[in-house]
Design goal:
heterodimer; A: mainly alpha; 10 helices; 3 strands; about 0% strand; globular; B: mainly alpha; Cytochrome Bc1 Complex, Chain C; 11 helices
Chain lengths: ~290, ~250
């Protein structure tokens, strides 16, 4: 009787279609061999031609400007310029990785696997989501760096005057609006909460006052954009009849993610100059940070 | 019906016979060149390096445009990085006094040292890109769907491990690029709520990037993370076979 309680997988592997199969040797092994050789040869020649960078010896007293993380983290460093550091550096990437890992538990339908895209609207959804992710991310970066207001003023002589200055970037909402003093220190926890002794960066962790304008700019607005825009995208495409299944929703989400991830990485890598100022790649110069030498 | 008489063996045939049909050779490669379907399956099933594969595979999966070999190439980059990494380890001592001098030695006096270092670096970048593209391929072919849910999760973990492997290696040259990139990177980790400062302290072995950070990053880079990645890779590859090979339409 014990044999009847053996756990069964929820979804079992498909039955094999033996008449559709080819031999791994030679059909697959040779392709793998050729791919491996192509990469070996290409990387070998790349290594002959281009040397890996080696700058001066590490020196804690000399800070290059700009200092940048490895390129695959520059998307986070770019986010860091627009919002609260913990959110940009830790919370958003962690939540995103959990969401990414949970994809197959959200889309449990096993239809449409093994072929590219797989649903009727898939290609359309991907193109639209990627385009919106691409241009949307650029637009938000340009707005938050104040470049939109700058271009409007410089090219079209448009200016909102002082009363509209708070729209120039997210940060200017904090500085350009007449916030009353009490809003910068709203007590919401009437005692000093220490979670861990704050080894490293300054003092105990306190959770008692809320700087509302700061919170609005550093946390609320970015959350609204990061959660709201993808939701709006999926909702809109659902209303248009493009997104039908859960797979479609994931296609929209993932397409938008890849595009904006790419834009963020590219901006952080090639468009951020000294002081993390937004510049064109050909204007990008690194100051070594040696005193008296720019 | 005339039966053709077997041709007389030429000199080339005799040399071939001596080289590949002798006692020693046959002790290593038992089946000879596999030119019958039976031997071709045997060679895949019995060879320790090839037996990762099934002996036969659905014909749509050998089309290059289906997978672009991205997963396999990611693994190949891992192997190449292991080889070049071991060679670099011969010349590199992870101490603040020696690291940078060793780097200069590798690039100037060690034979093929610059080449090994370049290969290691460009392969590392290639691996990050390939792993990401592999994830895109798997997503767009719907290959995460049942029964392969958990293998997708393992894949996400491997993506993170790839980033960490690359990140820990970034500090080792101990030049300005390395030092400040890790300073920026660890500051990002340090900004985490509640656990941030402690995490950063554990990561760096101090409040700033220093000798302790170098040995930590080195140890993680050359043994800790590769072992972990190898374990997850073993699970990843095993699950591909257990879940019925590559995804194909129902």
């Amino acid at each position: 009787m014990a044999t009847t309680v053996v756990a069964r997988p929820v979804a079992r592997p498909q039955a094999r279609a033996r008449d559709e199969e080819v031999l791994v040797w030679p059909d697959l092994v040779f392709i793998e061999f050729i791919a491996a050789m192509l990469f070996t040869i290409t990387l070998f020649f790349l290594s002959v031609v281009v040397n890996a960078p080696l700058l001066d010896q590490a020196n804690a007293d000399v800070t290059p400007n700009p200092s940048k993380a490895p390129w695959y983290l520059l998307n986070l460093q770019e986010l860091l310029l627009h919002m609260n550091a913990a959110m940009a550096g830790i919370i958003i990437p962690t939540i995103w990785l959990v969401i990414l890992g949970a994809f197959p538990y959200f889309d449990r339908d096993n239809e449409g696997q093994g072929v590219y895209f797989g649903t009727d609207g898939a290609v359309k959804i991907t193109i639209i989501a990627a385009a919106i992710g691409f241009f949307g991310t650029w637009a938000l970066i340009l707005w938050d760096s104040g470049k939109v207001a700058f271009f409007l003023h410089d090219w079209f002589r448009l200016s909102g005057g002082d009363s509209l200055r708070f729209l120039e970037s997210a940060r200017s909402m904090q500085s350009q609006l007449p916030w009353p003093d009490w809003s910068r220190e709203i007590t919401y926890l009437p005692f000093n909460l220490r979670i861990l002794d704050g080894t490293g960066s300054g003092g105990p962790t306190t959770f008692q006052h809320l700087d509302f304008p700061g919170w609005l700019v550093e946390q609320a607005i970015p959350i609204v954009f990061i959660v709201g825009l993808p939701s709006l995208l999926i909702y809109g495409m659902w209303r248009m009849g493009l997104v039908v299944t859960r797979r479609d929703a994931l296609l929209a989400l993932f397409g938008g993610f890849v595009a904006s991830y790419g834009v963020l990485t590219l901006t952080g890598t090639a468009f951020r100059g000294q002081g993390q100022e937004l510049v064109f790649p050909w204007e990008l110069k690194v100051s070594e940070g040696i005193p008296g030498q720019e | 019906m005339a039966v053709e008489a077997p041709a007389k063996p030429t000199l080339a045939d005799k040399i071939y016979d001596k080289m590949f049909h002798n006692y020693v050779w046959k002790s290593i490669f038992r089946t000879g060149y596999p030119n019958t379907p039976r031997n071709q399956m045997l060679v895949v099933a019995t060879n320790v390096f090839l037996h990762l594969h099934p002996t036969r595979i659905h014909r749509t999966h050998v089309k290059v445009t289906h997978t672009y070999c991205l997963g396999g190439l990611s693994f190949f980059m891992f192997l190449g990085l292991t080889v070049t990494g071991i060679l670099l380890m011969f010349y590199y001592v992870p101490s603040v006094e020696r690291a940078y001098l060793d780097m200069q030695n590798i690039t100037t006096t060690v034979q093929f040292g610059q080449l090994m270092r370049n290969m290691h670096r460009w392969m590392a970048h290639a691996m990050v890109i390939l792993v990401f593209l592999h994830m895109m391929r798997v997503f767009y072919t719907g290959a995460y769907k049942p029964p392969r849910e958990f293998n997708w999760v393992v894949g996400v973990i491997l993506l993170v491990l790839t980033f960490l492997l690359s990140f820990t290696g970034y500090l080792l040259p101990w030049d300005q690029l390395a030092f400040w990139a890790i300073t920026v990177g660890s500051n990002i980790a340090g900004s985490a709520p509640v656990l941030g400062p402690k995490t950063r302290f554990w990561m760096l072995g101090g409040f700033e990037v220093g000798p302790e950070s170098l040995i930590r990053f080195y140890t993680l880079h050359v043994i800790g993370l590769p072992l972990l990645a190898a374990i997850f890779m073993a699970v990843h590859f095993w699950r591909i076979r257990r879940d019925g090979g590559l995804a194909r339409p129902l």
